[in-house]
Structure formats: C-alpha cells, structure tokens
Design brief:
Radius of gyration: 28 Å
Order of helices and strands: HEEEEEEEEEEHH
Largest sheet: 6 strands, antiparallel
CATH architecture of the largest domain: Sandwich
CATH class of the largest domain: Mainly Beta
CATH topology of the largest domain: Tick-borne Encephalitis virus Glycoprotein, domain 1
Oligomer: single chain
Distance between the termini: 57 Å
Amino acid sequence: MTASGTFRTEREATLVPGQTLTVAGRTVRLKGVWGREEPQRSVIGATLDVLAKDGRVSGTLEPRMNFYRVSDQPVPTPDVRSSIRGDLYVNLMAFEPSGANATVKVIIEPLVPWIWFGGLVVVLGIGHGAGQHLADVVRHFTVAELQHLVGALHRQTTNQVQHDSGLRGRNA
C-alpha cells in the first residue's frame, strides 16, 4: 500500500469546457458542469472525457459534489477509472454556478493494479496449497477405503435428515 503512494502524481486545475489537463501522460477534457435534484440531495457534477494518446475519447468520468439538506458541507464523490496502467481519480473541487468552469484534481496511482495482482497471487497460492494438501490426504487412502468413507458419510447424512424429519413431524 505504501509503495502505491510513492509514484502517485496529482495536479489541480480550473478548466473551462473543452480545455484539457494532462497528468503523468493521462489526459482529461472538461465537457461541462451539470446539476440535478435528487430526493435526498442536490448534486453538482462535472463530465470529463478521458482521452487516449491519439486524442480519441476512451471513457468518461463524472466526479460530483453532493449537498445534503442536513449538512452545511458538500460531500465530494470522486470518480475512478482503473486500467492496467493504474488508477485515474478525478475529484470535483469547485465550480462556477453558471457552469463556466470547474476546478478538478486529477490523481494517478500507477501501482494500484499491482496490489490487486499481488492479492490474486496470494489467493492462487492458498488454493494451490490447499489442493496439494487434499491430494496428499486422498493419496493415503485406497479406492475401497475412499468408497467406504463416502458411503459412511452418505449414510450418516441420510440418517440425520430422517431423524430431523421425524422430530419435525412430532413437533408439528
């Protein structure tokens, strides 16, 4: 976790619609600022296009600020785009009520995918180890012994179900 923050890059800027911001080789373009009323809150958001190296739109992010009636402070909700190149976070920091501009903070966390990859390696290692242990246990039994064991477990389960059914019938 600490290593992921080591290579973190962030930049904050006020953009007008159509203007771009590039951080660590990742570019976003402000499309606009919008607002809507929801039953429990008012929401102000910004729509930003994520641009590929060739300039085409490769995705959209919509960070926002939520204004709840019971609070004096807005609750920011960043938007994130995860890829093999890392996580791209965009947070709406401020906005012009007319929609003329928005201040956004862009954060690039390039090592976050490696954290997920490391977790996957751990899970696969545990699965492999458990599978090996089960294979070692099974390898010590003959086929006849395994069949006898499975049959005994089946009989025990069947007897328990019949016993439980009988109890339910008497209690009903």
